[in-house]
Amino acid sequence: MDQRGGGGGGDGGGGGVRAGASFIWFISCSLFLSIMLGGGCLITYIIIPHDPGSMSWLAITGVVLVCLPWMFWFFTFIYRVVSRMRKNRSNSEGVATLGNVNTVASIGGKNNTNAAGTTLS
Questions:
Q1: Is-contact 17 24, C-beta < 8 A?
Q2: Which of 4, 67, 5, 1 lies closest to 39, judged by CA?
Q3: DSSP line for the chain
Q4: Residue 9 — left, alpha, or beta (φ > 0 → left; ψ -120 to 50 → alpha)?
Q5: Between 65 and 5, whose confidence is greater?
């Protein structure tokens, strides 16, 4: 574990916060702001007296803003499922991935065992 509290990271060894971590904060704050603004629109729609149908845009905007984080997580889930299905399909067609490739030391001849522990000739 490195000094930032995370795993290896692979960010080139530089200090500070990784670019991915700042992107996660940006997305999280945007989704939180969406929920707050949507809730504010819905509360305003409930509290302010109005004629039926005259301020329906406020309710629609509130529902859309509150549902935006749910849509984001749903599409993220769909993306993860589809990407894993494509990865599994490519593995069955004989395409090599990192899990099937020997380590760099094995390629150099210093370690002639594969991931299963059997000796390569």
A1: no
A2: 67
A3: --TTSSS---STT--S--HHHHHHHHHHHHHHHHHHHHHHHHHHHHHS---TTTTHHHHHHHHHHHHHHHHHHHHHHHHHHHHHHHHHHHHHTT---TTTSPPHHHHHTS--B-TTSPBP-
A4: left
A5: 65
Q: Judge contact between 67 and 39, C-beta under 8 A.
A: no
Query: pLDDT digit string (tens) for 22-43?
Result: 889 999 999 999 999 999 999 9
CB of 45 closer than 8 Å to CB of 59: yes
Q: Which residues lie closer than 8 Å to 78 by C-beta, 6 or more apart?
A: none
Q: How much is the pTM? A: 0.54
Q: 40: which residues sit within 8 A by CB, 6+ positions away?
A: 62
What's the CA gap between 91 and 81, in Å, rounded? 15
In angstroms, what CA-CA distances link 53 with 40, 44, 58, 89, 104? Answer: 19, 15, 10, 51, 67
Q: Are 34 and 69 in contact (CB under 8 A)?
A: yes
